[in-house]
Amino acid sequence: MTSHTRARKVTCKSYESNHMNMTRPVGANRDFVFNRIPHICGLTVHCIDAVLDHAKTAVTGNMDPTFGSVLERPRDDQDLLDFVWITDNRSKNGNHDGRCW
Q1: Strands 44-45 and 14-15, bridge-based pairing
Q2: Model confidence pLDDT, tens digit, residues 52-87
Q3: Strands 79-82 and 57-60
Q4: What's the pTM value of the predicted model, to 2 decimals?
Q5: Is residue 81 domain-shared with residue 39, that is, in the same domain?
Q6: Distance in angstroms (rounded) separating the CA atoms of residues 67 and 86
Q7: Nearest CA to 20 among 47, 41, 49?
Q8: What CA–CA distances, in Å, run from 92 to 19, 29, 71, 76, 79?
């Protein structure tokens, strides 16, 4: 998905609570990060707020508990594309769209 958005010159931020430390990968991870996906390092942020401050559309791709609070904080112009059904509740602004569930 990141490669697709980059090809269309759309800016993107990524948050993953259990992500590997992208500034100090080691071994095979280091080789993979720096040689195959170097653009990911610049997109990864360490808190969900940084993504929400940046995003026009936020996308959830796993059931991390952090994402449950996302529905309570969207801006009026912000959409949430939910691939995993993070909650039965609707977003505060009504812009919560579910896919694949």
Answers
A1: parallel
A2: 898 888 888 888 888 878 877 778 888 888 888 887
A3: parallel
A4: 0.64
A5: no
A6: 7
A7: 41
A8: 28, 39, 6, 9, 11
